[in-house]
Amino acid sequence: MASTESKSGSSENFHTQEPSRVAQPGARWGPQHAGARELAELYSPGKRGQEWLSVLLCFTLMAFNFCYLVTYFHLGHIWYILLGIVAGILTADFASGLVHWGADTWGSVDLPIVGKAFIRPFREHHIDPTAITRHDFIETNGDNCMLTIIPLANMAANFLMLSPAEIYRSYPWYCYVFALAIFVTLTNQIHKWSHTYFGLPRWVTFLQDCYIILPRKHHRVHHVSPHETYFCITTGWLNYPLEKLGFWRNLEDLIQSLTGEKPRSDDLRWAQKTK
Prior knowledge:
With 275 residues, this protein is mostly helical. It is 63% helix and 3% strand. The chain contains eleven helices and two strands. The protein has helices spanning 34-40, 45-71, 78-105, 114-127, 137-161, 164-194, 202-209, 216-220, 239-245, 247-259, 265-271, and strands at residues 2-5, 11-14. The protein has a two-stranded antiparallel sheet with strand order 1-2. Belongs to the fatty acid desaturase CarF family. The chain crosses the membrane at residues 52-71, 78-101, 171-190. Its main location: membrane. It is a multi-pass membrane protein. It holds the Pfam family Lipid_desat.
């Protein structure tokens, strides 16, 4: 078991043992929390089907595009390729923060379509942070795969329809889009690894220790209630500068002043459920 200290000295535990099957109605967090059990039960067969389809389409398109990128590779592009990859990773990290912040902070599980399908996992995660470690590959990565299907399909269409000269000119852009798609696709898998404290492959812990992907200690900061900072969960590179700029806080203040909506009100409602 590992734990993290909050600024006030309180700690929040992170463990990956199998949850007890005995109900604990008064649990403050974890799989026996009343809200966590209710949210887990909202995972539907239809949602599962959407995730399977998204994973299959995403990885098929990714393999197709990778073959064309290898075919059109030229050493003259090498520096542009490296720049495109770094830019793609940074864009993915910011996008992960924007989506994470939006789903954590606004909206409700009761919203039509998006509520149960996409906001529900974020509510569950705050009151049962280790639930993600018990999700299989499809449930973990299905939604992120869905996000990349359109850009990957557009890239594939370009490879089929454009001339070699046109592809050559746009090659660095395709490298950027492909790197962005890979890291967006893997974001929730990386997030899952940041909550897994036992049994990770050595290459994963190496990437975490090198800050190439989100480190476990770094992500603990977000899980100190009220979960209002460090939203970027791909690499975490942008968390510190965005926090120093007060980016999320200022954005919340602006939205609250315009709409009157209180940040994280639905998140707090689920956290306070007792039955």
